Amino acid sequence: MLMAVAAMTSFAQNNPKIDKEVKATKDFQAGKALIESKLAELNDEEKAKAYNELYKLIQPAFEKSMTAAGEQKMAEVDNNVVVNALETAALCEKYGSKDAAKYVAEVTPIRPVLINAANSTDNTDEKLTYSMAYINTAKQGDNFLALANYFAGYAYYLKEDYTNAAKYAKGGIGDERVNGPAEQVYRVSMEKNCKTKADTLAYIDALKQLDSKKYFVQICTMLTDLGEKEQVNKLVEETIAKEPDNKFAWYIRGTTKNEDNKFDEAIEDFKKVIEIDPAFVYGYYNLALCYGNKADDINAKKADKNGRLYGDDLKVCSEAYNGAITNLEKVRELDPNHETIHNWPMQLRMYYNRVGNKAKADEISKMLGDA
Questions:
Q1: By CB distance 3.0 to 4.6 Å, which of 37, 47, 82, 286 could disulfide with 95?
Q2: Dist CA 62 CA 250 (whole Å)
Q3: Nearest to residue 197, comparing CAs of 168, 176, 223?
């Protein structure tokens, strides 16, 4: 019984005639299908022989495409034949077939044809096939590997496989030929994979590694959305210490201070924003809101039952409203058609009404067509 089992096992794991069977098919696809159907029962020596014969079946068609490429007759190059030849030569090398070195040397010069093919085709499956064939047969230091990685990443992106899109696009980052689009595919794919908090934190780490300065605002926004206020505050303070002219760091800190009702501190931060960038319309707008919030807060806390303020409270409140008006008038100068900030006219009209300047408020109403 044991001897019978041993004999069956031996038979299942050996097919010494596989190379002859492949040769007898006289057709590459038929030979490939034959090998794949029996792959589990072949040892490495038999695989080597099988793939050695399989390469011979593709060789005539490959040589035809190689000749066409050498003569720059790219329309006559069969890219799928090139892919099959590359992959088969790689398998010959993997299993140590007797002619592996010769086959690899033969296919190597034509490999860049697949980069051009991946770039040129609008067919997503073809783009993926050509780029992956190049990637899977690349050696260390390959000059076009980054390009192939980008094309593969882009193809996976088009197929909505964002995990592989990010994986391969990352391989194109840093190569000046595709750095920009590779970074974009990588970044967007990582973003589309954000299903959980852990995914989002991984994306944030990826952005930090890419360019923490470039993606500073996006990182802070995502951390805020996750409720990681302490991380945001820490990152903002670190950024201000290292980059004191980073207007966005001051802007985010000012926004946080305003939300925490620390209006005077927020006002100072937004003053710093417009000092750094005097043309930054959002800086003036948010500075105006901080002044307005300060005045409203004084009114809410200090006004008597008739809504009146007195003494220093009245003075400080009036100064704050006027501060809001001054900065909104600057917004008006920078954004006269309120295309950037749509609601500044309503804000400005409100503050003019708060200080009792009906004429100015009516002017805004007329501009808006409300009068």
A1: 47
A2: 62
A3: 223
Instruction: Kindly report the backbone phi and psi dihedral angles of residue 195, in degrees, each rounded to the nearest multiple of 5, phi listed first.
Output: -105, -25
How distant, in Å, are the alpha carbons of 48, 251, 300, 339, 366 from that of 282?
Answer: 68, 9, 26, 12, 24
- Look at the block and give the residue holding tokens 């927020």: 266
Q: Pick left, alpha or beta for residue 261 (phi over 0 → left; psi -120 to 50 → alpha; otherwise beta).
A: left
Which letter, b or e, does each residue of 82-102 get, where b requires 16 or more Cβ atoms within 10 Å of its Cβ? bbbbbbbbbbbbebebebbee
CA 102/CA 96 separation, integer angstroms: 12
Give the pair of three-digit tokens for residue 229. Answer: 């206020």
Contacts of 100 (CB under 8 A, 6+ apart): 48, 52, 89, 92, 93
Residue type present at position 118: A
- Report the distance separating Cα 302 and Cα 299, nearest Å: 5
Convert 172-182 to b/e letters by CB count within 10 Å (16 or more is b).
Answer: bbebeebeebb
The whole-number pLDDT of residue 369 equals 87
And the tokens for 325?
A: 């008006």
Express each pLDDT in 148-175 by its tens digit. Answer: 999 999 999 999 999 999 999 999 999 9
First to last CA, the chain: 103
Residue-wise pLDDT tens digits, 292-339: 999 999 999 999 988 899 999 999 999 999 999 999 999 999 999 999
Instruction: Supply 222's token pair.
Output: 């995502």
CB 324 within 8 A of CB 292: yes
212-232 pLDDT tens trace:
999 999 999 999 999 999 999
CB 153 within 8 A of CB 185: yes
What DSSP string runs through 189-253?
Answer: HHHHT--SHHHHHHHHHHHHHHHTTTTHHHHHHHHHHTT-HHHHHHHHHHHHHH-TT-HHHHHHH
Residue 195 is which amino acid? K
By residue count, the chain amounts to 371
Given a contact cutoff of 8 angstroms between Cβ atoms, the answer to whether 129 and 83 are in contact is: yes
pLDDT at 5 over 50: no
The CA distances from residue 15 to 2, 87, 99, 224, in Å, are: 22, 23, 20, 63
Integer CA distances (angstroms), 132 to 62, 127, 128, in order: 18, 8, 6
For helices 124-136 and 145-158, angle between their N-to-C axes, nearest 10 degrees: 140
